[in-house]
Amino acid sequence: MQEPTFLILTALAAQPLHGYGIVQSVIDLSAGEVKLRPGTLYGALDRLADQGLIDVDREEAVEGRLRRYYRLSDDGAAILATEVDRLRKRAETAATQLRQRPGVVPGLSRLAGLHSGLNG
Amino acid sequence: MQEPTFLILTALAAQPLHGYGIVQSVIDLSAGEVKLRPGTLYGALDRLADQGLIDVDREEAVEGRLRRYYRLSDDGAAILATEVDRLRKRAETAATQLRQRPGVVPGLSRLAGLHSGLNG
DNA sequence: CGTCATATATCGGCAACCGAGCTATTGTCG
DNA sequence: CGACAATAGCTCGGTTGCCGATATATGACG
């Protein structure tokens, strides 16, 4: 699962939202890092509804325009929860690997050991 | 950044590896969840080298076949570290949202409050 | 001799995302 | 009154990254 899709599910986890509300929520949840494009949003919404991860909650007519609210399904919540686990595992694994990274070790040149070193 | 790319950088963080070694390492690091396909691996390797996130460490000839070892660059390590932060933030944000999820609240039907409830 | 593991690489196709554009209303600023 | 931003929805073409199949080659196992 990609980041935009993940954030759409995340936004819908707390309460049902309509398209534009999702865009606003994702900006908020990602601290401004992710701004969903229409193509991404509506494509993902159709796809997630097909997969049963989200459902249409209700449709409101506000000032002539239609507002379609989406809701996270139980399946969607379960998938999101496993995805959270996955991200945590990936992050911790990568952090561990980075700690083992062979870096420039300043004390190991041929000059090290001269002048009596640490145990002089 | 997608998961396969992230795991390739993760694998290379600890030590330089050749293509097939990366595949093995990623299986290990992901607890068998991710098995890189050749198309994914070599496509990503070329792309990451173009972006300067990895470098060719050395080339060894073992039994007539070439083994090309890749190494994580400083830029690659920095990108991976920011990506770790990102994943952690996304995971915690989603977990928080999931905790706020409106679920079926069993005590709130019209029958609640009858039979004296909790404080009887 | 066939098959599996090791090892590298290419190609076509697909799915998800991006960016631009379109429609429409309300409200603000000049 | 016109321009613009914000709210609200949607379509379409293009790019990117990943997948799966395929090709090549060696050594080991049965």
How do the SSEs of chain A run, as a string of H and E?
A: HEHHEEH
- Ends apart, CA distance between termini of chain A: 57 Å
- The total strand number of chain A stands at 3
Compute the gyration radius of chain A: what is it?
Answer: 24 Å
Helix residue percentage of chain A = 40-55%
Please identify the top-level CATH class of the domain at 3-85 in chain A. Mainly Alpha
Share in β-strands of chain A: 15-25%
**Helix-strand category of chain A:** alpha+beta
Contiguous uncertain segments of 5+ residues of chain A: 116-120
- The outline of chain A comes out as elongated
Spell out the CATH superfamily of the domain at 3-85 in chain A: Winged helix-like DNA-binding domain superfamily/Winged helix DNA-binding domain
Pfam families (chains A, B): PadR (PF03551)
Domain Transcription regulator PadR N-terminal (chains A, B): 8-80
InterPro entries (chains A, B): Metal_resp_DNA-bind_regulator, Tscrpt_reg_PadR_N, WH-like_DNA-bd_sf, WH_DNA-bd_sf
Protein name (chains A, B): PadR family transcriptional regulator
Any overview of this molecule?
- Two copies of one chain form a homodimer.
- By secondary structure, chain A is an alpha+beta fold.
- Chain A has a domain at 3-85: Arc Repressor Mutant, subunit A (Orthogonal Bundle).
- Helix content of chain A is 52%, strand content 16%.
- Chain A contains four helices and three strands, in the order αβααββα.
- Chain A has helices at residues 3-14, 19-29, 38-50, 74-99, and strands at 17-18, 54-62, 65-72.
- In chain A, a hairpin with a 2-residue loop joins β2 (54-62) and β3.
- In chain A, α1 (3-14) crosses α2 (19-29).
- Residues 116-120 of chain A have low confidence and may be disordered.
- Chains A and B meet through α1 and α4 of A and α1 and α4 of B.
- The structure holds a DNA duplex (30 and 30 nucleotides).
